[in-house]
């Protein structure tokens, strides 16, 4: 059984399987420009238009450094993705790469985790889109009933606060939520409250993705031009209103405050890997995918860092805990008409991110279905539109229904956990490819830097840095009991143990430094997420294993061929 669980697919097997679809295959229409556009569409979405405000509120102007740090982590990961994409130019992203490097069980786990990255993150994007859309309508004097524009939990919590402490304790947003609870129609004693715009936009985008890759590409390109124009306008227009005194103190809440924005900042970068799911629709995937990944990541990193500095320079960081920070900063300085323009174009910009994620999820399911791990209908290609039709419909329903009823902050951290997990396995997969000699087939390779001694040197420098400059951290650890350390610091302990193991293995096998750096940085960022998110993630993985052993293990084409 163990041999079957970890049986690997060769690069040749995967490519042959993708070609076996014959006339029912996907349409090859994407070039490097289209891929960069799709990557920017995915990355520059709800993160920069929404969650960047919360991150700045918690960490102050120093959050710009966190963007640098996370961007570096993503560059290491993007290089690893690019090598895999040039070696295995088929749909499936990290799921397919894990099948080559680690075997079927790990491939299933990573495919299941990617549902959190694409489907769950799209729930966040849809909810964020709804907030901007409602604000835009209000700018035109159109006000939707509150009970049609929010999650039930927002309204019920605001109403409970109103009952407990009175109207004076509520912010303006909470007052509107409490009013929505009181005004909502009821079935018995249960108020009917849901986020209608979030559900509608998901339906419309799913329909667009269903009708074809050419239509999706054209829509994405147009929306990317609009959103980049808005962001450049905010950067260069807002620069005239920057007050350097707003950058002091630079890190008002210390490194702890900066680190608390890890999930929000990382969520802003999620998406560069989604273009690898379109490999079978690329004209020249082995050449274009690596170029597109690196280009779109570098472009977006620069934009994020600049816009964070501008936002925290225009207004004090304490004013940025709002759902629409780009619009808010112009309202704050009295330029309401500019806030209106940003609000309208933000709706278009966030739509493009929703489109790319809805494009990516069905293609992963399609690839898993080809391997027999999911019901074969997920691999169905529409004869006219040349898209994975059934998988696209299921992905739309899976995003639309939760977006109607759940709060956005419930999903942000959970999305990051699944993504970190995928990124770590992809970086580790490159190390395996080097070890197994598969990298010789790669048309693009991660630049090799011998990490034999550098990984050890990095660990020693980190330990000495903590000893000489981290006495506060050491004192905090000393005050914790053994059980408290296990409860609150277990992930950090795992991080240091993994680094130690990589030192030993890197010395023996002469590991490449850059994939190791990607593993360590992603694992460290992972350790900064809350324990509750980890618990939910583990429950999600447990459900996934039940599905695998209940269906995938029995129907796996690779294992059935080996019998």
The main sheet comes to:
2 strands, antiparallel
Report strand order across the widest sheet.
Answer: 1-2
Tell me the name of the CATH homologous superfamily of the largest domain: Amino acid/polyamine transporter I
Element string (H = helix, E = strand): HHHHHHHHHEEHHHHHHHHHHHHHHH
**C-alpha termini separation:** 12 Å
- Alpha-carbon Rg, integer: 24 Å
Query: Strand content of the residues, in percent?
Result: under 5%
Q: What's the mean pLDDT score?
A: 81
Task: Say how many strands there are.
Answer: 2
The level of helicity is over 70%
CATH architecture of the largest domain: Up-down Bundle
Describe this structure in words.
The protein has 563 residues and is mostly helical. The protein folds into 3 domains: 2-140 and 197-441, Amino acid/polyamine transporter I; 152-193, no CATH class; 454-562, no CATH class. Helices cover 72% and strands 1% of the residues. The chain has 24 helices and 2 strands. It has a two-stranded antiparallel sheet. The longest helix is centred in the first third of the chain and has 36 residues, at 104-139. Residues 513-556 form the Cationic amino acid transporter C-terminal domain. Pfam families: AA_permease_2 (PF13520), AA_permease_C (PF13906). This is Amino acid permease.
What would a concise description of this structure say?
The chain is mainly α and 563 residues long. It has helices at residues 2-5, 11-19, 32-43, 46-59, 63-87, 93-101, 104-139, 152-165, 172-183, 196-211, 213-238, 254-259, 262-269, 285-314, 325-332, 336-370, 389-405, 409-436, 454-469, 471-478, 482-509, 513-527, 531-555, 557-562, and strands spanning 186-187, 190-191. A hairpin with a 2-residue loop joins strand 1 (186-187) and strand 2.
């Amino acid at each position: 059984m163990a041999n079957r669980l970890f049986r690997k697919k060769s690069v040749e097997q995967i490519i042959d399987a993708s070609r076996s679809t014959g006339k029912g295959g996907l349409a090859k229409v994407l070039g490097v420009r289209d891929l960069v556009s799709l990557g920017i569409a995915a990355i520059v979405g709800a993160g920069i238009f929404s969650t960047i405000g919360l991150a700045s509120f918690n960490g102050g102007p120093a959050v710009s450094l966190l963007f640098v740090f996370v961007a570096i982590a993503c560059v290491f990961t993007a290089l690893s993705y690019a090598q895999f994409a040039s070696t295995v130019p088929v749909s499936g992203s990290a799921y397919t790469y894990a099948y080559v490097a680690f075997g079927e069980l790990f491939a299933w786990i990573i495919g299941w985790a990617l549902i959190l990255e694409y489907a769950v993150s799209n729930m966040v994007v849809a909810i964020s889109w709804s907030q901007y859309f409602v604000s835009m309508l209000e700018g035109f004097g159109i006000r939707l009933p509150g009970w049609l524009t929010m999650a039930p939990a927002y309204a019920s919590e605001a109403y409970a606060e109103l009952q407990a402490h009175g109207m004076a304790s509520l912010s303006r947003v909470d007052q509107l939520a409490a009013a929505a609870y009181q005004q909502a129609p009821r079935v018995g004693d249960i108020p009917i409250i849901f986020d209608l715009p979030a559900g509608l936009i998901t339906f419309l985008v799913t329909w667009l993705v269903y009708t074809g890759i050419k239509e999706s590409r054209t829509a994405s390109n147009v929306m990317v031009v609009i959103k980049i124009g808005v962001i450049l306008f905010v950067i260069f227009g807002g620069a005239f209103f920057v007050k350097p005194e707003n950058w002091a103190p630079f890190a008002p809440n210390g490194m702890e405050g900066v680190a608390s924005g890890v999930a929000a900042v990382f969520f802003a970068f999620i998406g560069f890997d989604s273009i690898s799911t379109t490999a079978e629709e690329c004209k020249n995937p082995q050449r274009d995918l690596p170029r597109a990944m690196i280009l779109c990541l570098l472009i977006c990193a620069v934009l994020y860092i600049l816009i964070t500095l501008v936002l925290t320079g225009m207004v004090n960081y304490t004013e940025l805990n709002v759902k629409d920070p780009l619009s808010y900063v112009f309202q704050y300085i009295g330029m309401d008409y500019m806030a209106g323009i940003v609000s309208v174009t933000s709706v278009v910009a966030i739509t493009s991110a929703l489109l790319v994620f809805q494009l990516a999820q069905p293609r992963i399911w399609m690839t898993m279905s080809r391997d027999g791990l999911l019901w074969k209908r997920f691999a169905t290609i529409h004869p006219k539109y040349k898209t994975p039709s059934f998988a696209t419909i299921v992905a739309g329903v899976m995003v639309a229904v939760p977006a109607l009823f759940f709060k956005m902050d419930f999903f942000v951290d959970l999305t990051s956990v699944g993504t970190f997990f995928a990124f770590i396995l992809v970086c580790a997969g490159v190390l395996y490819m080097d070890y197994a000699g598969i990298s010789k087939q790669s048309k693009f390779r991660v630049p090799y830097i011998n990490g034999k001694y550098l990984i050890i040197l990095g660990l020693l420098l980190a330990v000495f840095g903590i000893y000489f400059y981290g006495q506060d951290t050491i004192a905090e650890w000393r005050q914790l009991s053994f059980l408290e350390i296990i409860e609150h610091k277990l992930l950090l302990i795992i991080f240091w143990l993994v680094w130690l193991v990589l030192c030993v293995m890197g010395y023996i096998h002469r590991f490449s430094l850059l994939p190791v750096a990607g593993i360590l940085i992603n694992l460290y960022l992972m350790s900064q997420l809350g324990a509750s998110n980890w618990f939910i993630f583990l429950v999600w993985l447990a459900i996934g294993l039940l599905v695998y052993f209940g269906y995938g293990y029995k129907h796996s084409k690779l294992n059935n061929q080996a019998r």
